[in-house]
Design goal:
The chain is α+β, with helices and mostly antiparallel strands and 224 residues long. It has a domain at 3-156: JHP933, nucleotidyltransferase-like core domain (Nuclear Transport Factor 2, Chain: A), CATH 3.10.450.620. The chain is 40% helix and 23% strand. The chain contains 8 helices and 7 strands; from the N terminus they run ααβαβαβββββαααα. It has helices spanning 3-13, 17-34, 46-54, 73-85, 157-165, 172-184, 198-205, 211-218, and strands spanning 42-45, 62-67, 90-97, 101-108, 117-124, 136-143, 146-155. A 5-stranded mixed sheet has the order 1-2-5-4-3. It has a two-stranded antiparallel ribbon with strand order 6-7. Helix 5 (157-165) runs antiparallel to helix 6. The chain is globular and about 50 Å long. This is Nucleotidyl transferase AbiEii toxin, Type IV TA system.
């Protein structure tokens, strides 16, 4: 992506150039993963899955997965390194195998952006049941910032909601995501930001939302 394209998408989508570029590289990484033999071992979930699969307006910094079958860590390391080597602006900083998580950190630095930004790749390897057709299915990922499309194993809305409800303490972005899921499932209700100061909501959420959605949030902020 060049500066002119990023500027045009910034105006069209009402979001920063950083978020535009981030989403392009997220799509690149997802396409490489799910078009490889390793892809069958992963289910895409979380806020980025909500955006790229289900149409959430919230941009997201991380790629979150659950592992549904065994995979070779060294092969995944090589795959991610190969992807990074194809793009001058993309660098694989590290990969770490933790007890219950495979973690990779990428760094993106485009010449026309003022600073670099991270993309986190995190896959839970906890022994949790995932049933195909109930908890996840094959769906198409797409984005307005690129012509790429990806056929991926994606968690159901209900499963994403279940996982987000289990996060303690609740995070501002998860409150927004659960509201969005509720809308998709036909449950109409306002976002509940009680317990959070308006300035904290704006700080943590607004950089990930287009301008029109920021205005929507304002009406649901706690009154001071």
């Amino acid at each position: 992506m060049n500066k002119q394209v990023a500027e045009s998408l910034q105006k069209t989508l009402g979001i920063s150039q950083e978020q535009v570029v981030r989403e392009e590289y997220e799509m690149i990484l997802l396409k490489q993963l799910f078009e490889s033999r390793l892809g069958k071992s992963f289910v895409f979930k979380g806020g980025t899955a909500l955006r790229l699969t289900y149409g959430s307006p919230r941009f997201s910094e991380d790629l979150d997965f659950s592992v549904v079958s065994e995979f070779d860590k060294e092969k995944l390391d090589r795959l991610l390194r190969t992807v990074a080597d194809q793009y001058e602006a993309l660098k694989l900083v590290e990969t770490i195998q933790k007890t219950y998580t495979y973690f990779a950190l990428f760094r993106v630095k485009e010449d026309f952006l003022s600073q670099a930004f991270p993309i986190k790749f995190e896959a839970s390897v906890r022994p949790v049941s995932w049933e195909r057709g109930k908890h996840y299915e094959l769906l198409v990922l797409s984005s307005k910032v690129t012509n790429l499309t990806v056929l991926a194993q994606v968690a159901s809305l209900e499963r994403i909601e279940e996982e987000k409800r289990g996060i303690e303490p609740p995070r501002i972005r998860d409150i927004f995501d659960m509201w969005f899921i509720g809308q998709k499932l036909g449950r109409i209700s306002p976002m509940d930001f009680r317990g959070f100061e308006p300035r904290v909501v704006r700080r943590d959420l607004y950089k990930f939302l287009p301008e029109k959605d920021k205005r929507l949030i304002e009406q649901w902020l706690p009154k001071q």
